[in-house]
Amino acid sequence: MGLLVVNPGLWTTVQDLGRPGFREWGVPVGGAFDRRSLALANAFAGNPPDAAGLELTLHGGVFEARCDLGIALAGADMEASIVDPDGGRRSVISPSSTTLKAGERLILGRATAGARTYLAVAGGFGGRSSERPVRAGDFLPAVPSRLHGRRPRPVESAATDPIGEPFRCLPGPDSSSLADSEALWNQPFQVGLRSNRMGLRLEGEPLAVVPEAERLSAPVAPGAIQAAGGRLIVLGVACGTMGGYPHVAQVISADLDRVGQLRSGDGLRFRRVTIDEARRLDRQAREAQRRWSAPITALSRDLFELEFRPEGTPG
């Protein structure tokens, strides 16, 4: 029982919230690139935020239910529809929840805005985060379930806007390596084609870096901005734990989800903030997510229990 991968799309992986706490052993955190969107999809499926879901990048794919499955979508706007065995079709809008009945196929097309969409099922998929993309013929185990069709309120559905505002950053430990310390904050950049979950290569005016006779590798984390040959690289959630390029800035945690929704060609700018401001923004983002996720999850679970309550069981 579960979901059959008919067409895996461009780059689809199983992701949860990663493996924090093992960087000292060289294990990247990994997990969903847009954690907020995975948490929203999981909330609509009645799951905890760290339940494993599918991360679909730029183009979704085709998936067939082998039993009734309550599903939820969130993240980038992606063309989506459900086709039954007789050819009947109904559209699905993200974010929302619905039921994919046994034999029906969920068809996900291209992302029209943003880069990554998340597919959750009630109860979560078996397994944990993996950088191995799913393949045609793979089977993703899941328990039978049904979910009512639900759309969120505006405060819940507000998508992560990758380019609406500058990315807020802290100066990095090697910010003094830039010949012009203000160049990073004063000019626009663009996401290049060579970008993935490990990092995004940026295009723009080259940044001059003060040469060093010898440079030792140092710890890095997702959101680190490195200067390599005058070009910038923004490290993603699958980045390594050490880096040898100058670490000139760090995207704050409150803006990391937006990095995960950038696609090649997107323009972006950076804005410098203080450590106190970064901590305040992180607390605000965490509290906002707690406020909307708890009631959505609770209602989804209540509707699930109502749907599957045996006849004669007290309400």
Automatic annotation (TrEMBL):
Record region (Disordered): 145-167
InterPro entries: CT_A_B, Cyclophilin-like_dom_sf, PxpC
Domain Carboxyltransferase per the UniProt entry, residue ranges: 24-289
A family per Pfam: CT_A_B
Protein name as annotated: KipI antagonist
UniProt keyword list: ATP-binding, Hydrolase, Nucleotide-binding
Annotated gene: kipA
SUPFAM superfamilies: Cyclophilin-like (SSF50891)
GO molecular function, one term: ATP binding
